[in-house]
Structures are given as structure tokens and as C-alpha cells.
Design goal:
CATH superfamily of the largest domain: Periplasmic binding protein-like II
Family: Belongs to the LysR transcriptional regulatory family.
Protein name: Probable hydrogen peroxide-inducible genes activator
Number of helices: 9
Strand content: 15-25%
Distance between the termini: 42 Å
Number of strands: 12
Structural class: alpha/beta
GO molecular function, one term: DNA-binding transcription factor activity
Pfam family, one: HTH_1
CATH class of the largest domain: Alpha Beta
CATH topology of the largest domain: D-Maltodextrin-Binding Protein, domain 2
Keywords: Activator, DNA-binding, Transcription, Transcription regulation
Amino acid sequence: MAEHLHFREAAAAIGMSQPALSGAVAALEETLDITLLERTTRKVLLSPAGERLAVRARSVLETVRELVEEAEAARAPFTGALRLGVIPTCAPYLLPTVLRLIREEFPDLEPRVHEERTAELLEGLTRGRLDALLLAVPLGHPGVTELPLYDEDFALVLPHGHPLAGRRDIPRAALRDLDLILLDEGHCLRDQALEICQEAGREAGATMAAGAAGLSTLVQLVAGGLGVTLLPRTALKVETARSEELATGFFADPAPTRRIALVMRTGTARAEEFETLARALRRALRPLPVRISRP
């Protein structure tokens, strides 16, 4: 309730009926002899006492989660659920390899994939909703440990016939004047692309031609002649095959890059398990157009 402040949404999140949850909260209030929620006809708010107890409850639940995790890890590694979070700019291109690896080398693991943006994934990891993440680093986020998997270059996706199409020696300075199309705000790939552009000398706040919610839409906007975009190499083959109106161009060395890592909670009981998984992923990902990280 403290997270949703809505009985129906909270009940759905924990798999209870709304009346059952309402009754449980009322029973807890009666047991504690305190009002936890302030109810109106339109909304639910935490009382001052409810806010204090919610902080303590989160701490208790985190301790219980760690205890269960410790017991599961001690019982048998690589068994049970693996709640894996993946950013949208990795999921379609990495998951076939990742899931095949898990099926072949860790058959007793039960992967449950969650595709979300970086901020939501980190919140899910730190709160215990997720076990590990596949995303772009560095994060600069406390309480998490990054296990680098690979680095990959960015390439330009352009309309067919663009002057830069087919080139393999494009200078970064070319980004200063191109009509760029980027993902919408909230995607880490957008932030990375903006940083690359600024390093190339593009003015901060320079107008972008358009925006998109996903990479597939992004490249279709390019195919429609609205501009050009930056794409990581792992996405290039899949996305550019969608239209004959698309072309590619590659940067002169050193090309702009991003790093992808397996991320876990610092101190997790499954640390050794995830380190083993990271080593296996580095082997499995070698066929992709990436540079595998050293352990």
C-alpha cells in the first residue's frame, strides 16, 4: 500500500483480492491500535504513523528476502527463479543467446524476464523485485556491483542515398550538423547518444529531428527520411533489415562505444552464481559484433 496508495493496484501487485487486502490492513490497524492509512472517497494516504512504519516494514521485508535468498543459494546454486531485468535496447538482440545459454548450461534455472528502463530496473534490483540486470554501465549507483560483459561500437543508420551511407571512416565531428533522431527521454541510450554528440562538439540543447519510444520505430523514422540515428552494433543487423530504404555508416577509430554488464546487488548471497553466469555469458556472446570484456 505504501508504494501504490491504491487498494486495487496494491492488491493486484501482491496477488490478493481487494477486499482481502482491505481487511488485512484493517486487522493490522486494530492489532497495532493505530491508524496507518487515511482513507477518503477519492484517494488513500499514509498517516504520519503509517509513513514511519512503512520505512521499518521495508527494512524487515528486505531482511526476510535476504534470508530466503541465502537459504536458496546454500541449498543448490543455479536452481529456482532468476528474475532478470533487461533494458529495451538490449533485450531483442541478447535474449536469444542468453536464454539459450541458460537452457543448455543451467537447466534448473527458471528465467523470468522483465524488460524495463534503467531507472525502473535499478529500483527493482535494490528492492528485491529483480535478481540481476543486463544494462549499460557505468551506473554510479550505490549498492550494486557491475560485471562487465562486452563493449560495442555505435554506428550511424541513414536513409538510402545519404552522403555518409556506406562509409567506414566517418569522423565524430559529423554529428554536429546531422538531423538526429533519438529515443524518448528516460532511455539510457538517449543519454549515451547525447553525450557522444556533445563530445563531438554538438551544442547542448540542439534541436533533434524527432523522437521515438523504441529502436524499431526509430529506424522507421530514418527510413522515412526524417533524419539519421545512432544504433549499437548488436541491434544493427536486426533493425536495418526491416527496410530497403536504410543504409549504415561506421565511425573512424576510435568509434563511440557503450559497455553492457550483468549487474547484481552488492553482497547478494548469489554473487558467486552470478559471477559464473557472467563468465558463461562472455563465452556465449563472442559471435556478436562486440569486444568481450576481461573478467
